[in-house]
Specification:
The structure holds 2 protein chains of 2 kinds. By secondary structure, chain A is mainly alpha-helical. Chain A has helices spanning 2-17, 20-37, 46-79, 83-87, 93-127, 132-159, 163-180, 184-189, 195-205, 210-214, 216-220, 228-254. In chain B, the strands form 2 sheets. In chain B, strands 6-7-8-3-9-10 form a 6-stranded mixed β-sheet, sandwiched between helices. Chain B has a 4-stranded antiparallel β-sheet with strand order 2-1-4-5, with helices on one face. In chain B, a hairpin with a 2-residue loop joins strand 9 (209-214) and strand 10. The chains are: A mainly alpha, B alpha/beta.
């Protein structure tokens, strides 16, 4: 485990010493602040729209950070040849993959804390209430979703040589799942064979990330909390997919020559 | 004398990128044994297979057939690399880290306790003369300084076997002298050094034994003095004879 934590520590250090995270973070905050300063039509409920837009921005920003940070990890190590002295140490390739995953995932967690604290403060300044548990449930499942996305991107970085192509493919996959993943079963019903079976197979194979995405409504509409057992179940479901992607990444990486 | 590094009928093939072309044999049936406490030079012209052999020893490239062992452990096991230090030909390290942070990271992977790691980092940064810049990011270092960070990281675990892949390539005379001094010091401490080099004068000075490979095949292995004696000259003449170099005469 110490090797995994050591690699993860380097990933986190890299994230906070690079400028791209700060640019994205400041940009998101600036957009939210500008929106918060405007009161369109003197609507008392404008805070709901504001929260919805902020949460959408937070989701997009967190996905950009998760995917771009993860996509460059292994290719950059190869390109900069830092992989050779690293793997010449008593560090297995499996430990390297898990270390990279843990680093990216924890970094995403830190980013989410910053974003959600900011959103909470912004909303509280208007609503004068702190529904902390709602924020916690939404952020918690958001973080687990990012775990699955990080693992998928890590696997992609071993299959596709260029980080840019891997990032694009991962963005398309994640956006497709978030937008139309839940409707695939309905689409399948309207099709004839063999397309029906193919779409059904895709529907049951893809990780359904839409539940955490819809948790935004807890914050936007101040809905009551959902059951903790349901939150735990969804976290386990996402963790299972994360593990599948990580094991696949380890298997792919184990067979690769790194010279 | 115990054998520290051993290869048995090692064969490495690379797929040819051209369609329907046969595979390229990088190493063919390489048998090597390096004993504890010796400085072993691994020589050959460019493309002979030196770096490929080192890559197999470090577990970077899987052999097609045969086996390689470090301290009697199959090189495919990460633990085989616990007692080695490695300096690659081109040294590139995490540029966003300082030399101190880089050494601490590698020490952590080797499982060196925190206090001991601090002590070793101080000693090594002093040895490679980077004490003054230890808190500066590596991206601000010159090429020579980066090479010295490489040397320090190769020694962080107090290795019993040091594998150096053309350690002096691209270094100025002072840097070369430093590397030579360190090899000599390790030799005096009874450590084993395995290094590939094109600097035959340097090899002649520091090595006990050498192996010469050409086109993936081991051509000769033996004591430096014996090889020189056999070829009536110096190591350079012996090397050229062994790889079959024919000087072209001007017409």
């Amino acid at each position: 485990m110490k090797n995994i934590f050591a690699v993860a520590g380097i990933v986190i250090k890299e994230l906070y010493r690079r400028k791209d995270f700060y640019v994205l973070f400041i940009l998101t905050i600036l957009i939210c602040l500008i929106m918060a300063s405007v009161n369109v039509f003197n609507d008392n409920q404008i805070i709901r729209y504001l929260k919805e837009l902020c949460l959408l921005l937070i989701w997009v920003s967190s996905l950009v950070i998760a995917i771009t940070t993860t996509a460059r990890q292994i290719p950059a190590e190869k390109e900069n040849r830092t992989l050779l002295p690293l793997l010449a140490k008593p560090l297995s390739r499996t430990q390297l993959i898990f270390g990279k995953f843990l680093g990216c995932w924890l970094a995403c967690g830190l980013v989410l804390i910053c974003f959600y604290v900011f959103l909470g403060a912004l909303a509280a300044s208007r609503e004068h209430s702190w529904p902390l548990l709602n924020y916690f449930q939404a952020a918690f499942l958001h973080w687990f979703t990012l775990g699955t996305v990080v693992a998928l991107t890590l696997l992609g970085s071993l299959v596709f040589a260029a980080p840019s192509s891997n990032s694009t493919i991962c963005f398309v996959i994640v956006a497709t799942i978030l937008c139309i993943g839940r409707y695939l079963d309905a689409v399948a019903l309207s099709l004839s064979e063999p397309f029906r079976s193919i779409i059904y197979a895709i529907y049951f194979t893809i990780p359904h990330l839409e539940i955490p995405f819809e948790m935004r409504n807890l914050i936007i509409h101040d809905w009551p909390l959902i059951g903790w057992n349901f939150v735990a179940l969804d976290a386990i479901y996402l963790s299972a997919y994360t593990m599948v992607f990580l094991v696949a990444a380890c298997l792919v990486f184990r067979r690769k020559a790194v010279n | 004398m115990s054998v520290i590094l051993k290869t048995e009928k090692l064969r490495v093939e690379f797929a040819n990128r051209e369609f329907l072309k046969s595979v390229k044999v990088a190493l063919s049936s390489l048998d090597l044994e390096v004993n504890a406490g010796e400085v072993f030079g691994f020589l050959g012209p460019n493309g002979a297979g030196k770096t490929t052999a080192i890559n197999v020893l470090l577990g970077f490239v899987p052999p097609k057939s045969g086996a390689a062992y470090l301290f009697g452990i199959d090189v495919r096991q990460p633990i085989a690399r616990q007692r080695i230090g490695y300096l690659p030909e081109m040294t590139y390290y995490y540029k966003f880290l300082t030399a101190e942070e880089l050494l601490r990271f590698y020490a952590k992977i080797f499982g060196v306790p925190r206090k001991e790691a601090d002590k070793r980092i101080d000693q090594l940064l002093k040895l490679v003369e980077l004490e003054q810049v230890r808190k500066r990011p590596i991206k601000t270092y010159s090429k020579g300084m980066q090479q010295r960070v490489g040397l320090a990281q190769a020694l962080i675990n107090k290795p019993d076997l040091l594998i150096l892949d053309e350690p002096t390539s691209g270094l100025d005379p002072l840097g070369r002298m430093k590397v030579r001094e360190i090899i000599q010091r390790l030799k005096n401490e009874g450590k084993t050094v395995f290094f590939s080099s094109h600097e035959l004068g340097e090899v002649e000075t520091v090595c006990d034994r050498v192996a010469i490979i050409h086109q993936g095949e081991l051509k000769t292995v033996g004591r430096v003095t014996d090889i020189i004696e056999k070829h009536h000259g110096n190591l350079e003449k012996a090397f050229l004879d062994i790889v079959g170099y024919q000087p072209q005469t001007a017409s």
